[in-house]
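Lab manual, section 2.4: Encoding a predicted structure.

Procedure: take the sequence of the chain (709 residues), apply the prediction step described in section 2.3, and record the output as structure tokens. A sample record is shown.
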Amino acid sequence: MSADQRVQTDLRSVPLDLAQARLFAAAIPGPCLVANVVPGGLTVLASDPLLRRFITATHPSGPHLGEVIPVGGFTVLEPVLRALRAEPFAPRSLQVPVGDEPHWFELRVTPVIYEDRFVQVLVVGVDRSDEHDVDRRERRSRRRSEAMIAHAPGLVLVLDSAGRIVRASPGVDHMLGIGAGELAGRPVFELLHPDTLARVATIFNHVLGLPGEPVRIDDFRVGHLDGTFRACEATVTNLLHDDDVAAIVFNIADVTDRRVAEERLELAAASDSLTGLANRRSLRERLEQAFDTARTDDAAVGLALVDLDHFMLVNDNLGHDVGDAVLRTVASRLSRVAGTVAPRRSPEATDDADAALVARIGGNTFAVLCGGSQEPVEFLTGLAHEIHAALDSPISTAGREVPIRASVGTAHGRPATADGDTLLRAADLALVRAKAKGRNQTVSFTAELQTAAEQRLAEITALQSALHEGRLRLVYQPIVRLDGALVGAEALLRWDHDGVLLTPAAFLDLAEDTGLILPIGAWVLDQACRDLVTLRAAAPDLQWVSVNLSSRQLLDERLPSMIDSALATNGVDPSSLAVEIDQRTLRDDPGARTVLGALGAVRAMVSFDEVGADWALLSSLAEHGAHVVKLGRRFIQQLDVDVDDHDRTLAMAVLELARTDGLEVIAEGVETIEQHATLRDLRCPLAQGHLFSEPLDVDTFVAIARSQR
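Recorded output:
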């Protein structure tokens, strides 16, 4: 048996009570042997890669024991010498740096003697790291908690069960202007604003009964050292039951900047950016408040709506900068009026409840709201007078004097019979009536206005229904030569209203004001083109059908494409359609000339109606694409048996000018034999009127045309 084999045999006989533990051994002198001592022998360890990897990586040729195990306060030599002298050696604990985590080992030293000769020292280290984990976890938990508190956003206060501050995060300096050390032992409630103290204390007491459950506290304030208060939100969590924390954690977020931003946004949402006055939203809110107060005081709420007359002319002619300056000045003047005119209030009314509010609720529309009046009619009359007086003098801006006038509509109501919405509608109805009466006037709401408004709404609804339900009709009045030969026809609109055919005189203004004239006009164009096909099939001599266009249609840029679509859809030649325009539209609405110029691309005929003795306009009609002119009814009615030389001379001049410009002339409204004779003498080529035919529906027109073929 070799010496090595005998050593191995003796090693097996070494009494080790730690045979199942993870061990490592080292020979002195000599390289370190990583091994696992198990019953039956000493084998090279294959199941301890962590320690083996550390050793082989740092000392590939095998380190000495002192290199692997830094003993610290004692050297490896000391226990070895004690072992050689057979002196007792108490196990010691030490750390071995294995990987990222240190391991704790219990160190034992045993001498190996063979044949009375010292051979080796067996150093056994038992891994006791698990026994140290509890302390390690506690230390880690404490370090983690302290790090979280130190780096947490906002302010973290650690409180005991009585609400006293145990520890505070560094954020306390910024939020409260106080060092964390100065807060220790102070009740957290001393930091709170008195207005929020009771609520926060109640929530804190509630939290004591909810271990581990976070509870949110919204909108409270804490004091800063400089005397101001910070707006805060917080989450409070009771962790008294948690051994790692054993406290109540008060996590506070400073939301002062956010609150300021929200207030600015709220102010912007509630005010007019140009004038700084309240806007429509604020007006509605104050109306509700005013009615609530008036209900208590048994008072009335008064409202005046102010609309600047013809303000569009200021913007269009002087520019929007001047217009904006005018609006700001008007806002200032109305605010002064509201500040000096106060309603007669009840003795119980509060000072703030009836404070006047001036608002800008539209482009050039303002509102003045006052509540608490016991005599609202008298008060609103005086208020309107003061408003007109305040706006009477011109506004100086950009080196210009801008005159300004306004229409005013007033209304009042008591909570028993009105609310904010009804009062707004009532004042608006009064304002509409003031503008309709010629502007620069004041109208107060009455029950009659409401009745008229309801009737108008009913008429609008009925007209809309007539369009959608097919109760609009077209009739056609023939246009003839003076010998009676058919040349054309004028399409005339009728409304079948409960069996009665209404002429445009009964509903045209309504259609214009509501914008219904646009869809109605589109229907007329399409229906006239469709009927034209039918009429020409029965009367081949029919050259054209004319359709009347309103001034509102002539301001619609879509008109040319609308006409083109009606012609194409029905297969009608453009020269067979004449669009008829009142010559006053061309004179009064310069914007209509732009659309009229675009009609040239459509190639439809253009006819001007109600032509009289306006020489300048008459001479320019050809320049605007006119093909036909119609002598107005009033002009024709003067051509009777007693026509004087002046009228005859005027008529002859009109006809001669039209012929010179190559225009067809139609005498409209011919009703008597005498008018017919005069027109023949004047050599007027075409005419229409009751003398020749009443307006006819399509079926009757077709039947008469066929009977005369």
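Check your result against the sample. DSSP finds 26 helices and 28 strands in the chain.
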